Amino acid sequence: MHAMQDEAGTPLTPVHPSPSTPAPDHPSAGRRRLYAVLLGLAAVVLVLDQATKVWALRSLTPGEKVDLLGSGIRLNLIRNPGAAFSIGDGATWVLTAVSVAILVWVVVGARRVGNTPWAVALGLLLGGALGNLVDRFFREPGPGRGHVVDFIDYFGWFVGNVADIAIVVGAGIIMVLAYRGTSIAGPVHRAEHADG
């Protein structure tokens, strides 16, 4: 009798709820790690961008090109009121607004990030956008109209900076992720779905 009661009573015992309690901690811990990657990378890009701009302003003379990698990649200091290829020279306020819009998009996307590649891509975009926005708001001729410091000359086609490199690399990663169908909120490993 006792054996039958024990067997019948086992499903009613509170054994199963206890292991499921710590499960919610794993996603939040993983999300915190992704936030750390995103924000840490953005901070590194921002600091590196501003530090190299300070160095360029102190060490380079506008109009005097310095060979870096042969005559292809040179150091060439300019103050750029527009975007790449000198587009929008007279629309600095518009470019500032566009940069702020991109920044907002990255911040909103960061709240949904669920895997490391997306965290890296958004971190690069965030750091690059902040790097150039610092110039727009705090450099001459005034807030919102500041000229971006560019000093890396690519084959005479255009001149950029570290923030631009981060933005291009981040955008490239996003293009690859989109091509592969990796959602910003989803996991990278598809084997789990195949097994399930």
From TrEMBL:
Transmembrane stretches in the record are 34-52, 90-110, 117-134, 154-179
Q: Pro residues: which segments have biased composition?
A: 14-25
- What InterPro entries does UniProt report for this protein, alphabetically? Peptidase_A8
Top-level taxon in the UniProt lineage: Bacteria
Q: Where in the cell is it found?
A: Cell membrane
State the reactions this protein catalyses. Answer: Release of signal peptides from bacterial membrane prolipoproteins. Hydrolyzes -Xaa-Yaa-Zaa-|-(S,diacylglyceryl)Cys-, in which Xaa is hydrophobic (preferably Leu), and Yaa (Ala or Ser) and Zaa (Gly or Ala) have small, neutral side chains
Q: Which UniProt keywords apply?
A: Aspartyl protease, Cell membrane, Hydrolase, Membrane, Protease, Transmembrane, Transmembrane helix
Q: Where is the active site?
A: D150, D164
The answer to whether UniProt assigns keyword Magnesium to this entry is no
Record-listed E.C. numbers = 3.4.23.36
What kind of membrane protein is this, topologically? Multi-pass membrane protein
In residue numbers, the region (Disordered) covers: 1-28
Record pathway: Protein modification; lipoprotein biosynthesis (signal peptide cleavage)
What is this protein's function? This protein specifically catalyzes the removal of signal peptides from prolipoproteins.
Family note: Belongs to the peptidase A8 family.
Q: NCBIfam families per the record?
A: lspA
Can you name this protein?
Lipoprotein signal peptidase
Quick one: which gene encodes this? lspA
